[in-house]
Amino acid sequence: MNNADDIDIRPGGTASAAEVAQFAVRADAWWDPEGDFAPLHRINPARLTFIRDNACSIFTRDAFGPTPLVGLRVLDLGCGGGLLSEPMARLGAAVTGIDAAPENIEAAADHAAAGGLDITYRCALGEDLAREGAQFDIVLNMEVIEHVPDPAVFVAICAELVAPGGLMFMATLNRTLKSLALGKVGAEYVLRWVPPGTHDWRKFVRPSELSGYLRRAGLDVSAISGLSYNLRRNEWELSGDLGVNYMAVARRRPN
């Protein structure tokens, strides 16, 4: 079993060894819809709708076609077990998934291979790809920023990976009293949706802060949407409520 000392994270990098370790030890649970990552399975349909519809709007694609993202290069940064990488590949994109934990990459690669999906997985950080000069049409940066040591530096490095005219999608939790009650205490200790200690409320990011990080990194925010749990329908849906979970999409101006 891994602990923080086992993770090879370079000092001054964008990843926290302790944060990486807490996900590495649960790598075998990524594809269990009732396991530790069950909330991500349940929230995925709403996340995918937001990503697909905004991407198709910007790149002038038919959102309801069978492979609307064909020809687009997608980076799933902090991909975990590949819960977003795989549907992106099924939508036609050429997908690269990176994660700091080798256990996650192994789980993602094994699952993709079993499903016959051609996805490139690497154990790497954003700064590794930035040094290589890699760029993508779409960078997925979902539920990662609340786990990094320096959000501003993290966003700046990730922005380097967005090609001119490309998009970066981000998802995180707002730092509000509502998110403390629901996103931290409720989700971890009452409903047990995620293991206790998964999140540090002090590291949640307000939409104004996220917009500032993106703007200073050279990206223009084009849309922000809340993610809310509909108790009556027992599903997550896009909403105007940014008080707990929310997503944003930002674009790098074309050259």
What does this protein structure show overall?
The chain has 255 residues and is an alpha/beta fold. The chain has one domain: 3-Layer(aba) Sandwich (Rossmann fold), CATH 3.40.50. 35% of the residues lie in helices and 23% in strands. Strands 3-2-1-4-5-8-6-7 form an eight-stranded mixed beta sheet. The relative contact order is 0.14.
Helical fraction equals 25-40%
- Judged by helices, strands and strand pairing, the structural class is alpha/beta
| Biggest sheet overview | 8 strands, mixed
What is the CATH superfamily label? Answer: Vaccinia Virus protein VP39
What order do the helices and strands follow? Answer: HHEHEHEHEHEHHEEE
**Rounded Rg:** 17 Å
Reported CATH architecture: 3-Layer(aba) Sandwich
- For this structure, the CATH topology is Rossmann fold
Reading off the top of the CATH hierarchy, the class is best stated as Alpha Beta
Average pLDDT value? 89
The strand line-up of the biggest sheet is 3-2-1-4-5-8-6-7
The total count of strands amounts to 8
Approximately what portion of the residues adopt beta-strand conformation?
Answer: 15-25%
Shape: globular
The DSSP helix count reads 8
Alpha-carbon distance between the two ends: 47 Å
What low-confidence regions span 5 or more consecutive residues with pLDDT below 50? 1-7
Number of domains: 1
